[in-house]
Specification:
12 strands, alpha+beta, flat, four-stranded mixed sheet
Length: about 325
């Protein structure tokens, strides 16, 4: 019962407890090594000897009675008397086991080397010659001709040969296919509702998935879609007097490129100071990911403006969280 209470306590998950456990394990490893050295020194004072050659047996093999297999065989077979028939049988079997070798010439370095008869088709003497011969006989990569994209008109070189490839990327192909298709307002509203419900319930799985986890606050599990959101809740718990934490269940409208869109803020945190609507955003340093997340970065300023207006209308406080506010905790955070 005591162990279960200790595991459920806040100290069990704290950084102090983890540091104490790591320091204790390091000290234990050092003491174990010292004890092993003492045991080896005591053993070397009066070591165990081989029954045949009377040589010293090493500490790691102290349970053995002989230092090697040859000593054990010679010691155990010293009283064994073989007849002439058995000796002849042994000699014949040994002669059969003798392998005949053949001299060959390496195709790369042109040096002679011995090989058993069953491997007479061997061409090279060692692995280095095999690698170097592969480099010499390596086939050049296929170079494909430039093509022009039917959608954007840019020239591109296909990575894999495909006679039917007409577009430089998947986005261009989808644009070309979906030209002339106009969705009605009803279908757009249905699709937006389906997507918003998936986001609220945590069922939405984008192509670029993030680390999903759960933050525990007062025995209550709160869903987090990334490490940034997890570190945000830790930051609020350290710096504010929190009463309750919830995921936001409402949507906020914003305009982007002349179209109305909806987005769901991250958290609704009630404190003694007031109710905060929190939005967690970060900037990724990797340029390739920035290109993939271009829509994510372009919509941030529009989302901020709409969130500020929404909070002013409903007497809420807005808070934009970035991982730089709690960077030490974010870097040390490891979620399975």
């Amino acid at each position: 019962m005591k162990n279960e209470k200790f595991k459920k306590s806040d100290y069990y998950k704290s950084e102090k407890h983890i540091k104490n456990v790591l320091n204790a394990s390091k000290c234990a490893i050092i003491e174990i090594k010292k004890l092993k050295i003492k045991r080896i020194e005591e053993y070397n004072k009066n070591p165990k000897r081989c029954l045949k050659c009377h040589n010293k047996i090493e500490y790691e093999k102290r349970k053995n009675t002989f230092c090697s297999k040859s000593c054990s065989v010679s010691y155990n077979n010293r009283k064994r008397n073989l007849s002439e028939k058995t000796k002849e049988k042994i000699s014949k079997s040994l002669k059969k086991d003798k392998i005949e070798y053949v001299n060959l010439v390496c195709e790369y370095c042109k040096k002679e080397f011995k090989v058993p008869i069953n491997k007479k088709r061997k061409k090279y003497c060692n692995n280095e010659c095999i690698k170097s011969s592969k480099k010499l006989n390596k086939k050049p990569k296929k170079t494909y001709k430039e093509r022009i994209c039917e959608e954007c008109g840019k020239s591109y070189i296909p990575k894999y040969y495909n006679k039917n490839q007409r577009f430089c990327s998947q986005s261009c192909s989808s644009r070309h296919v979906n030209t002339g298709k106009k969705l009605s307002k009803e279908t757009k509203q249905k699709l937006s509702k389906i997507m918003s419900d998936k986001i609220k319930n945590g069922d939405f799985k984008p192509k670029l998935t993030s680390i999903k986890c759960e933050y525990v606050y007062k025995k209550k599990k709160i869903r987090c879609d990334s490490k940034v959101e997890y570190s945000c809740l830790d930051y609020f718990e350290k710096n504010f007097d929190i009463i309750n934490i919830e995921r936001c269940n409402f949507l906020i409208e914003f305009e982007f490129n002349g179209t109305k869109r909806n987005y769901n803020p991250d958290f609704k945190i009630t404190t003694t100071e007031g109710i905060y609507i929190v939005e967690c955003k970060t900037i990724i340093s990797n340029k390739k990911l920035q290109r993939k997340w271009s829509y994510y970065y372009d919509t941030i300023p529009y989302k901020k403006e709409c969130l500020i207006e929404y909070c002013k209308e409903n007497d809420y406080k807005y808070f934009f969280y970035d991982k730089s506010l709690n960077i030490t905790f974010y870097n040390k955070l490891r979620i399975k």
